[in-house]
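We now fix the convention by which a protein and its fold are recorded. Here is one such record, which you should read through line by line:

>
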Amino acid sequence: MIVRPMTRLLHTTTFMTSAAKTSQCPPDQGHEVAFAGRSNAGKSSALNALTQQRQLARSSKTPGRTQLINFFTVSTEETRLVDLPGYGYAAVSASLKANWQRELQDYLMQRRSLAGLILLMDIRHPCRDSDIMLLDWARTRALPMHILLTKADKLNRGPAISALNQVQRQLKTENYEASIQLFSATQGTGLEACENLLQTWLGISFPISTVTDTPGSIPQDSNSNEQITR
């Protein structure tokens, strides 16, 4: 297997620090991409799959208990991935929900180094009210948005494509500027497309001639689940 340069770089991702509130975040410089989603949307699995590290992002055994903003460095402290607290879990108290919402909004609206938002939605339950709330915040700030419809392996190809198209139509109807793709951390669906997007948002580039793939792999065409669409 020949490893693509960006994949190899993502493999170097390491834990940096955690913050309970935005005032504790690392210096606001460089570029970072944040991952957000409802509890059990698959954020930890996505981060671990993209970095090829099983324990980099740890999911709580009790949904809704992760209360910290976790920062990870990609090669240098100037390029970071950020794991935001999961949201939308019913068993969490109203006061705790309100506190998380304030911190989440403060981070998304004020963080100058934030280059883009990856919003993860379970393909079987997309566009919940809390997801729309994040889309609204990102739109207010004109922040680049990309949606991963996670756990795509839970549906057959036909229903998965239908779900993708349905979310696309909703985004267009409600005037959200966001790209979208299918994603499965367990099967690797959409990994390369997401890696390429991260490369762009983090300001990392490599000569095209150095980008290779596994020998014998099937090239992705315009109808592939790997494609990012708008």
Summary: The first strand starts at residue 14 and ends at 19.
